[in-house]
Amino acid sequence: MLKPIFRCFLLALAAAAAASFVPAEPQPPAKPNVIIIFMDDMGYGDPACYGGGPYATPNLDRMAARGMRFTHFYAAQAVCSASRAGLLTGCYPNRIGIHNALNPDAKIALNGEEETIAEILKDQGYKTGMVGKWHLGSKVPYLPLQHGFSEYLGLPYSNDMWPVHYDGKPYPETSKVWRARYPPLPLIEGNETRRIIRNLDDQAELTGIYTDRACEFIRKNKKSPFFLYMAHSMPHVPIAVSEKFRGKSGAGMFGDLMMELDASVGRILQTLEENGLDKHTLVIFTSDNGPWLNYGNHAGNTAGLREGKGSSWEGGQRVPCIMQWPGKIPAGTVCNKVAAAIDILPTVAAVCGADLPKKKIDGLSILPLLKNEPGANPREHFVYYYNVNNLEAVRKGNYKLVFPHRARTYRLNPPGYDGFPAPAPDVPTEGGLYDLSIDPGETTDVSKVFPQVVKDLEAIADNYRQSLGDDLRKMPGSERRPAAKVQP
């Protein structure tokens, strides 16, 4: 038996050891996390670090200061569904049969045989979650859970696809207006409708609902690698702002919304930092296409780029993009090379050690750009498709060749106001060659000055016409794959 004094000494020693013990900090997962924050209709010139204002976007500005800001980054196409299909699959959307913005009763959806970012990362043991707007199929089996995501909360399509007038009032049942034919707008969790979004007050909750769920997903999965795809429903119209931010920007409702969306980004970044994950997470912020300019003060801006959403001019397809990964992406860098949303899948695959999809894709890894390697230029050219399969333009280096086609214009009418749109008709354009290094507004055709450049760009376009087709030339293409056919 131990003597009392010796037993007391051992107890004191054990107590001191226990008091000095500090639990080890939870170690981040071996593979890096990936978060994509995808805005809807946010223009190139909307974030303050791209010239936006007079509202403030301090969190996006901080992202740019801590990471890389792209100045020539392109959405896959200048419209909702096509753009999202390109982002998630790494393909030009016409390669996989997706075009335009799919209505609730659309007869096509993203084909289940196409592999998404979520699927290639899930195969690597990643937890995969999506929050927000899907827009690639509005019912089972075309929802996110059937495309590699383990959980989902959001709207199946755009927030204006509902039976509500521009003034926020529901259409009467007797209305003959085409918008009145839309079903009630569902907020879906998993595969089931959680609630109905009935009015603008309900819409004002969406940004907060999405942000809460995104932060919850991060906290819940902090001990394993995860992929989070957060696709906001705004600033796509109708815009709506929570009471916390209403009237706070001094720049109208759009300014208030930009402040709220920026604060959402800030909450996600803060959640990463609080859980010791920010240095182990690649965060990508970008937009699905340019602004819907005919909505006037409820739309954003293009910082002087020509036209907006729904066109192959720069304002329709060049979008803001910021990527942050502390310790991996050099802080405060600006990338002036061409890159695109279709490049995100192969880049993420390279970062995370995932296999590329088995079927051919169009994206290229831009990891050398993220590392700021001297001379890196993985994407030498980019093609602009629109509608079902119109090849409307091609870019290489500083030069962009626009082919004759009918294009949406916002220039013929004064913009709308307070949620009401102005007409934005399609008009014929003769196209031309533009030097984007000195003419980002695409105002001066220089094709007669640089005929060899025109010839070189035509050759690139011809190759794409053979593989992906071109409805403008009545060429079907040999490498296109069908979208899923939605069953009644």
Spell out the key features of this protein.
single chain; 488 residues; alpha/beta; 2 domains; eleven-stranded mixed sheet; four-stranded antiparallel sheet; 11 helices; 19 strands; globular; metal-binding; Alkaline_phosphatase_core_sf; hydrolase; Sulfatase
Structural class: alpha/beta
* Total of domains: 2
CATH homology-level superfamily of the largest domain: Alkaline Phosphatase, subunit A
Runs in which pLDDT lies below 50 for 5 or more consecutive residues are 8-23
Fold and architecture overview:
- The chain is of the alpha/beta class and 488 residues long.
- It folds into two domains: 33-379, 3-Layer(aba) Sandwich (Alkaline Phosphatase, subunit A), CATH 3.40.720; 384-485, Arylsulfatase, C-terminal domain (2-Layer Sandwich), CATH 3.30.1120.10.
- The chain contains eleven helices and 19 strands.
- It has helices at 4-20, 58-66, 80-89, 117-122, 200-203, 206-220, 252-274, 314-317, 344-352, 367-370, 451-467; strands at residues 33-39, 68-74, 108-109, 127-132, 151-154, 185-189, 192-197, 226-231, 281-287, 318-324, 333-335, 339-340, 381-386, 390-396, 399-402, 405-408, 426-429, 432-435, 484-485.
- Strands 1, 2, 4, 5, 6, 7, 8, 9, 10, 11 and 12 form an eleven-stranded mixed β-sheet that branches.
- The longest helix has 23 residues, at 252-274.
List the SSEs and their pairings:
Blueprint: H1 4-20, E1 33-39, H2 58-66, E2 68-74, H3 80-89, E3 108-109, H4 117-122, E4 127-132, E5 151-154, E6 185-189, E7 192-197, H5 200-203, H6 206-220, E8 226-231, H7 252-274, E9 281-287, H8 314-317, E10 318-324, E11 333-335, E12 339-340, H9 344-352, H10 367-370, E13 381-386, E14 390-396, E15 399-402, E16 405-408, E17 426-429, E18 432-435, H11 451-467, E19 484-485
Parallel strand pairs: 1-8, 1-9, 2-11, 2-12, 4-5, 4-8
Antiparallel strand pairs: 2-10, 3-19, 5-6, 6-7, 9-10, 13-14, 14-15, 15-18, 16-17
Helix pairs in contact: 6-7
